[in-house]
Structures are given as C-alpha cells and as structure tokens.
Amino acid sequence: MPLKKIDSITLWKRSGVDKFSQSTFDDPVGIDVRWDELTQRMVDDAGQDFVSKGTIYNDVEDQISMGDRVLLREYLVGDIDHGFEDSLIVKATRVDRNGTGLKRLDSSYLGRAT
Questions:
Q1: DSSP secondary structure code for residue 60 in this structure
Q2: Fewer Cβ close by (within 10 Å): the C or N end of the chain?
C-alpha cells in the first residue's frame, strides 16, 4: 500500500552552484508528502550536529535530496521569493525498506540554513 500523503509542501530542487559558490535552485513545485514537525538532534552527512525542525516522509525515490529547500504550502502566501526565505533546507536523508525490500520510505530531515 502506498504512503498516505496528507500534507502539501513547496519544493525547490537544488540544481547546482553559481560562480560565487552559492546554491542555485529550480523553480518551485508543489508535492504531496507526510510531514512531522518533530524537533530532534541529528547529525548531517558531513558530521555536523543540527536540530531538525521537521521530517518529511515520502515514497517517491530521489524526489527530495540533501540541499533542497522546502516550505509548508500553507505558509506560502502569494510571494514565492518570500516563501523561499522562510523555507527549510534538507540537511540529512535516510531510506528505509520493508522486510521484503520492495517498499521504501524516504525520510528527509530539515534544518535552518546557516
């Protein structure tokens, strides 16, 4: 059975870096996921401690990656640029599979940009 997706978020996929070594992003898209506003201490892939501001659960492979930016859709009121400033960055990800290995659940842990 697929994951019951009950929350909508806005996603900016990280597309690369500019000449100033700043991240660049694709245009925002809305996607349906599960969202949990659980705060927890985490360690990112670079070994840095951070406090996760929420977790996104998704069953679509590679839809959300480290470095992407996300925003809960209901916080987005008309001005997409202002929404980007309020967005959270994906700081860590994890993939879990069920016992048969056929079903996957991607977890993305969110933090503030530093």
A1: S
A2: N
Q: Greatest CA separation found in the chain?
A: 45
Predicted structure pTM score: 0.79
Tokens at 64, concatenated: 């959300």
Are 83 and 29 in contact by the 8 Å Cβ rule? The answer is: no
- Cα separation, 15 vs 17, in Å, equals 7
pLDDT tens digit string along 44-74? Answer: 778 888 888 888 888 787 788 889 998 876 5
Residues in the chain: 114
- How many helices (H) and strands (E) would you count in the chain? 1, 10
What's the distance, CA 14 to chain centroid? 11
